Amino acid sequence: MSDTPASSLLREMAASERPQERLQRLGPAALSDTELLAMLLRSGTRGHDVLSVSTHLLADAGSLAQLITWREADFCRLKGIGRVKALQLLTVTEIARRILLQQSGEAPLLDRPELIAAYMAPLTLGLEIEKVWVLCLNRKGRLIKRVEVTSGIATASLAHPREIFREAIRESAVAIACVHNHPSGDPQPSAQDMRVTRQLREAAKTVDIEFIDHVIMGRQLNDPAGIGHYSFRACGFL
């Protein structure tokens, strides 16, 4: 095993094996996750070259995917990453989030809880406040429009049914699904979640719009059921 200190990884590396040279010679697919981060960061600091900073960043996050949940403060607490680099990284993770959300071709089909959860996962990942969305659907269960209805504090944000159905009527939706997130990561419904869902169920009958589901987004690791989301329809409530 090499005894090269982490702070001199780049200095000890042959010029032809450094990330930029490998990128030019072999293309981006040949680079490791650490090397890709090094290309983005461009430089390190005294005593911590860019490869060392990238190695520590990846080790701390656990994976590239986990970086999408990080905030500016998370990046800045690592040696070698100041505010400018943190903002650069936040920009890239936001681009990644938006790419995941974009759909090509036909509007996404959202008529089942697992499809709704998969569609909303990039949008809710890492959120520290509760938000509520209404998914306005056509008669085939495909998305017409996603509307953020409310954005609250860390513990509460649920919207009144009239706010949700106002958006559905505006978009001429035949059906809707309501989605909100739990920042704690545990998607199990609270008493308030149950109460609002009952209100939405009754309001849907009044306006003749099908209420297909209310999905609560969490994280698989924090979900007692090990799923990562909760569907009122799947649990027999709707």
TrEMBL record:
Record-stated family: Belongs to the UPF0758 family.
Lineage, highest ranks first: Bacteria, Pseudomonadati, Verrucomicrobiota, Opitutia, Opitutales
Domain of life: Bacteria
NCBIfam families the UniProt entry points to: PRK00024.1, radc
TM spans (from-to): none
InterPro entries: MPN, RadC_JAB, UPF0758, UPF0758_CS, UPF0758_N
A GO MF label: metal ion binding
UniProt-listed GO biological process terms: proteolysis
Compositional bias of kind Basic and acidic residues: 14-23
Domain MPN: from-to ranges: 109-238
Assigned keywords, A-Z: Hydrolase, Metal-binding, Metalloprotease, Protease, Zinc
Protein name in UniProt: MPN domain-containing protein
Region named Disordered: 1-23
Pfam families for this protein: RadC, UPF0758_N
